[in-house]
Structures are given as C-alpha cells and as structure tokens.
Write a structure and sequence with these properties.
Distance between the termini: 27 Å
Number of strands: 11
Largest sheet: 6 strands, antiparallel
Oligomer: single chain
Strand content: 25-35%
Structural class: alpha+beta
Number of helices: 2
Shape: elongated
Radius of gyration: 20 Å
Order of helices and strands: EEEHEEEEHEEEE
C-alpha cells in the first residue's frame, strides 16, 4: 500500500549548523530601539531560500528517520528501508515529501512512523493511495501489484 506525507515548514524545523544570520526588514516595517538604532532579526533556524538550508533539513530528516529504525539504502540517499517482524516498508524522500510503501495493507510501520513524525514536527499531513507525488503521476493496478510513476506532462 502507498501513502504519502508532507512535513510543513520543514526547513525551519532543522538545526542551523552555522552561525546565525541577520536580516534587515523592508523600510515600510523597520523597527528601531530607543536610541534610534535599526533592529535586525536574528535567524536561528534555516529558512527556505538559504543556500545551506536544504542540506541542514536533509541532515535533520535523515537523523530522525534513522532514530525511528529506518535504514538508508547504500548508494541511494533518498531511499530508506524498514524491516519489521511481520512487515517491511520502503520510503522515498524528496525534501519534505515522503512516499511510503508497505507490504502489510494495515501499514503498522508507516502508521508508527507518521505518529512519530507528527509528535516531533507537528505539521505533518498524509494521504493514503495517492494519485501523485512530487510532480509524478502514480498509477496502480487493481490488485496493487504494479505501480508506475510517470511525468506525462513532461513528454
């Protein structure tokens, strides 16, 4: 069975692995202290658009998934595997989007992972039997034995 998940505001949930950044506000919303000095905003978490932010989020998600028992497949950084006692699961991650596939249709591994992700990051949405993932169209056979990911809009 396939499920997909999205972690909202992912970059801001990562650890900043570099000194804090500073940002000036637009002139229309600038703030000043009592001495007339312009106040700057200190950036303590990565923000979308910063060069290093994607890498910092990738480290965060990798550490989180491996702490839950998922193992990264050697040579395929976006693919993880989890072998449980009665079921096995795979996931593909693209930034903050995750596509899960589990052998047990009741998806105990995926459900436990989703709960742990929600406990840690709060803003996690998910969808069972998705028809699309990260710009790919997903089609499945009636018995779920064959799944195809395609990008027909790119052909």
């Amino acid at each position: 069975r396939l499920l997909k998940a999205d972690i909202g505001d992912a970059y801001a949930k990562a650890k900043r692995n570099r000194p804090p950044g500073y940002m000036r506000m637009a002139r229309t919303i600038q703030e000043f202290d009592e001495d007339g000095m312009e106040l700057l905003y200190e950036l303590l978490t990565p923000l979308w658009g910063e060069h290093e932010a994607g890498f910092e989020w990738d480290i965060e998600l990798h550490e989180t998934l491996t702490s839950f028992g998922w193992r990264q497949v050697p040579g395929i950084p976006a693919l993880y595997i989890f072998n449980g006692t009665d079921s096995s699961a795979r996931l593909i991650k693209i930034v903050d989007d995750i596509l899960f596939c589990e052998s047990d249709t009741s998806t105990p591994i995926v459900n436990a992972t989703l709960k742990a992700l929600k406990d840690k990051y709060e803003q996690v949405t998910h969808e069972a039997d998705p028809s699309a993932f990260a710009g790919f169209k997903i089609t499945q056979s009636a018995d779920y034995s064959v799944r195809k990911l395609s990008q027909p809009q790119k052909i």
